[in-house]
Amino acid sequence: MPIEPNPLFPWMFIIEEKRKESPTVFSLYLRSVDDQPFDFSPGQFNMISAIGGGEAAISIAGDPTDTHLLIHTLRIVGNVTRSLNTLQKKDPVFIRGPYGKGWPTEQAQGKTLILVAGGIGLPPLLPLIYKAKKQRGYFKKLVLLYGARTKEELLFMPFLEKMAQEKVIDLHLSLDRPSPGWNGHVGTVITLISTVQFDPQQTVVFCCGPEIMMRFAAREFERWKVPKENIFCSLERNMKCAIGICGHCQLSAYFLCKDGPVFPYEKIQKLLTIEEL
Question: How deeply is 28 buried, as exposed, middle or buried, from its count of CB atoms within 10 A (0-12, 13-18, 19+)?
């Protein structure tokens, strides 16, 4: 029997593998203690915690069709992620979820899907690459525009290069500033948009990363005549309850945990221009 999500009940998982992705980013590969299947949609998130270490909202980065292996990629930024980073193989972690509205993949079916990722914004988009690999032809074309500050901060490069070689994705990379040994594009990820050929009326865009990056990416795709209703962004806020009760993740009239984290750009366009709410 599959896990029946309970909004307040954490399930115990065991770390099957821990990988260091960059100096400040690591991934946890998790399996439930009774190996129960865990279903989720690309773009959803879980609340993840270690014993005595608090709880954090982290997007799910794994293959949606592999319901026995749950992958979370975390950047070390606070007490919770520092606590989780001390864990090792076979240690327990606790999961609540999955929560939130994910990427509207059905809207991109049969069309060109452009993924725009900045830094740690890549993991929430990875399930779409797994989907494209398993369901060849679901998307007419899958393009990944991925940018980071330095070469060392580019995540999952062996996987992405393999997917590019297998023609699952059309991969475009950029660094904000030059790094030793880097011969690729230099500039923000926004500057990659003009290097890609696409039919604006048959293109859907999913963005994840810093809000300023998503705001300018959406504006640029609008300039290229992609319909506003075909542009989506995943927002991040400090989530506590994950069910829209505590109010920590409120953004104007929206609760990101239940109304998002993925939103149509036309709904949040004005909110992305406000410095504080």
Answer: buried
238-273 residue pLDDT tens: 888 988 888 899 888 899 999 999 999 999 998 887
Nearest CA to 21 out of 133, 179, 159 is that of 159
Sequence-distant (≥ 6) Cβ neighbours of residue 244 within 8 angstroms: 255, 257, 258, 259
One-letter identity of residue 60: I
Residues contacting 67, CB < 8 A, separation 6+: 2, 37, 38, 39
E strand spans, 60-188: 70-75, 92-99, 112-118, 141-148, 170-175, 185-186
Q: How much is the pTM?
A: 0.94
CB-neighbour burial class of residue 120 (10 A; exposed 0-12, middle 13-18, buried 19+): buried
Average pLDDT, the chain: 93
Q: What span, in angstroms and rounded, lies between the C-alpha atoms of 260 and 10?
A: 21
Query: Does position 88 have pLDDT exceeding 90, yes or no?
Result: yes
Strands 250-251 and 254-255, by their bridges, are antiparallel
Residue of 240, 265, 73 lying closest to 155 (CA atoms): 73
Give strand ranges (E) for the chain.
11-22, 25-32, 45-49, 55-59, 70-75, 92-99, 112-118, 141-148, 170-175, 185-186, 203-208, 231-234, 250-251, 254-255, 262-264
The torsion angle over the Cα atoms of residues 188, 261, 56 and 255, rounded to 10 degrees, is 130
- What letter does residue 80 receive in the DSSP assignment? H
